[in-house]
């Protein structure tokens, strides 16, 4: 029966709810996205595996819509161009897949979300370095410790867990809150 896993998910969400510093960092990330969109900038996302799915999901919430029928926002998950991804992985190695695209796409004032449950994914770390060089605001989404990524980013959203599925669930929860708040601030009221 799934009871223990559901209880574990609830415990992580209770930890998130009790972590005022984490929730303030989420607010800071939201404000960075709003400021970027107001300036005509973009929000980029990268991650591997389940984190790639989260990157694509959150980019779609911003570029499509969340609650409101409103203009699209410039948000993109960097792994969706499979021709680019496979060419770079083949020619340069997978560690360079996101950093090359960050160099091509990232501009000063853009926001780059770097999603890695461990905080140690080599290609995500390389993207962080490239994003810093480009002048992007770096938002890391990790598990409890933050890994190496925690030392590179401007804003760390580290879910208080070491269990990958619970971390990913936390990323999606906080990502949805961010998307809802960005939409509300830019375009008006959303349901609560």
Automatic annotation (TrEMBL):
Record key words, sorted: Carbohydrate metabolism, Cytoplasm, Isomerase, Metal-binding, Zinc
Statement: the UniProt record of this protein carries the keyword Cytoplasm: yes
Top-level EC class: isomerase
Localization: Cytoplasm
Cofactor(s) named in the record: Zn(2+)
Binding of substrate, residues: 48-50, 61, 90-91, 116-118, 121, 168
Main location: cytoplasm
GO biological process: carbohydrate metabolic process; D-glycero-D-manno-heptose 7-phosphate biosynthetic process
Reactions this protein catalyses: 2 D-sedoheptulose 7-phosphate = D-glycero-alpha-D-manno-heptose 7-phosphate + D-glycero-beta-D-manno-heptose 7-phosphate
Domain SIS positions: 33-188
Amino-acid positions noted as binding Zn(2+) in the UniProt annotation, renumbered to this chain: 57, 61, 168, 176
Gene3D superfamilies: Glucose-6-phosphate isomerase like protein, domain 1
Pfam family, one: SIS_2
Pathway: Carbohydrate biosynthesis; D-glycero-D-manno-heptose 7-phosphate biosynthesis; D-glycero-alpha-D-manno-heptose 7-phosphate and D-glycero-beta-D-manno-heptose 7-phosphate from sedoheptulose 7-phosphate: step 1/1
Cofactor mode of binding and number, as noted: Binds 1 zinc ion per subunit.
GO cellular component: cytoplasm
Keyword Transferase: no
GO molecular function, one term: D-sedoheptulose 7-phosphate isomerase activity
Entry EC number(s): 5.3.1.28
Family: Belongs to the SIS family. GmhA subfamily.
Additional note from the record: The reaction produces a racemic mixture of D-glycero-alpha-D-manno-heptose 7-phosphate and D-glycero-beta-D-manno-heptose 7-phosphate.
HAMAP family in the cross-refs: GmhA
Biological function: Catalyzes the isomerization of sedoheptulose 7-phosphate in D-glycero-D-manno-heptose 7-phosphate.
Protein name per UniProt: Phosphoheptose isomerase
The species this protein was found in: Neolewinella xylanilytica
Gene: gmhA
